[in-house]
Amino acid sequence: MQREIYDVTIIGGGPAGLFSAFYSGLRELKTKIIESEPRLGGKLNVYTEKMVWDIGALPPTPGGRVIDYLVEQAEVFNPTIVLSQKAIGIDKEEGVFVVTTETGAKHYSKTLIMASGWGVLLPNKITVEDSEKYEATNLHYLVKDPQALSGKRVLVSGGGNSAVDWVNILAPLTEEVTLVYRQAELKAHESQVSKLLAGQASYKGNHTITRFIADSTGERIAEVVLTDNLTGVETIIAVDEVVINHGYSEEGAIFDKNTVGLEKHDDFYVQTSFDNQSDVPGIFAAGDVVSHSGKLHLIAGAFHDAGNAVNQVKKYIEPEAHSHGRVSSHNHKFDEKNIPLKAQFFG
User: Fold this and answer.
1) In which residues is FAD bound (predicted)?
2) Coil, strand or helix: which one is 307?
C-alpha cells in the first residue's frame, strides 16, 4: 500500500495548530492536522462561555465562537483533519517522519509542527459506579452550549474557578442549579464565590457524589445521591443534567515514545529557538508547548509561533523559498474569495 506523505503534519488542533494549518495552506504546503479529541479548538473548549478579549482587532468574543472562527479559517485551504487520534509516537523512516496514533494508524510527513499545548487534556472523571454509561446522555465533563441546559435541573460537582463560573452562568438559565463540593470552602476567586452564594444557586459543601440512580430506561441519571462527609447522612437530589468539573490532567506520551530525539523541557515544553525550531531538524513547535525566553503565552502569541514555524517548514523543504509568505491583503490566492466579501462590505 502506497503511503501518502504530507509536507507538514500539525499535532494538535487548538489555536496554534489551526492557524498553522491556515498559514501552511497559504504557503502551498500539503497539510494535515492530528487532534486527539473529537473536536477542534484545544483548551478553548474548556471555557467556551468565557469572553476572550486579547486577540488583536477581534472584539470580545466567547471562546466557543473563537473556535468557530479559527476552524473556518483553518479550512480555507482544505487541510486533511484527523480527529479522535492521539499521537503517541514519532519515528523516522527513509527521511520521513512517521507519527503513530493510539489507533495504530501511521501518518507520514516531511516535517512536523508540535502544537499540542501542555499535552492531551484529560478530564478527571468521577469514580462513581456505572458513571461511564451516562456519558452518552446526561453526564458531562464539558458544556459547549449553556443554552442546552436552559430550564433544566442541573447539578455541578467541583470547587474551583471553572465549576463556580459554570454555576454562575447557569443560575439564571436553569430551573435550579446545585453546586456540590467535597470541602466546606470553595477554592474559586472570592468575587465569584460571593456572587454564587448571593444568587439563585444552591451550595452543598462537605458533600460528595456517591451514587447515581438511573431513570426507567437505565440510560439517564434521574437522581444523585450525596453523602455528607462529616455525618455520613445521605441526600437524594432529582436532576436532569450532571456536570463534573474536577479539573484536568495532561498527558504527553509522545515525548516518551519517540525515536527521533524529541525531548520535553520542564515536564511539558518543547525547547525551541526564537523562530520556533526544535532541537530535532524538521520538527518545529507553536503555542503553549513552546519554551524560549521570549515566549508569549497568549492566543496572539500562538499565532506568531505558527507563522514562524510554518515559514521554517517551508525553508526546510524548499531552501530557496522566500522566508515568509505574501500578506493576505496583497495575495492573489484570495482574489476569487474576495469578490463576494468586497460586495458584502462595500456594496
Assistant:
1) 35, 43, 47, 87, 121, 288, 329
2) helix
Cα pseudo-dihedral 97, 98, 99, 102, rounded to 10: -170
CATH superfamily of 5-121+249-346: FAD/NAD(P)-binding domain (3.50.50.60)
Q: Which residues are annotated as a binding site for FAD?
A: 35, 43, 47, 87, 121, 288, 329
pLDDT by residue (tens digit) across 286-344?
Answer: 999 999 989 999 999 999 999 999 999 999 999 999 999 999 999 999 999 999 999 99
Domain positions in the chain are 5-121+249-346, 125-246
Q: Distance between CA atoms of 204 and 206, rounded to whole angstroms? A: 7
- 71, 74, 77, 79: CA torsion to nearest 10: -90
The CATH architecture assigned to 125-246 reads 3-Layer(bba) Sandwich (3.50)
HSE of 130, CA atoms in CB hemisphere, 13 A: 11
pLDDT value, residue 4: 96
- pLDDT tens digits, one per residue of 188-221: 999 999 999 999 999 999 999 999 999 999 999 9
Transcribe 26-62 into DSSP letters. HTT--EEEE-SSSSS-GGGGGGTTSEE--STTPPSEE
User: What is the CA angle 140-141-142, rounded to 5?
Assistant: 90
Look up residue 169 and give its three cell numbers: 452562568
> Which residues are annotated binding-site positions?
35, 43, 47, 87, 121, 288, 329
The answer to whether residues 39 and 63 touch, using CB atoms and an 8 Å cutoff, is no
Which residues on adjacent β-strands are paired with residue 73?
Answer: none
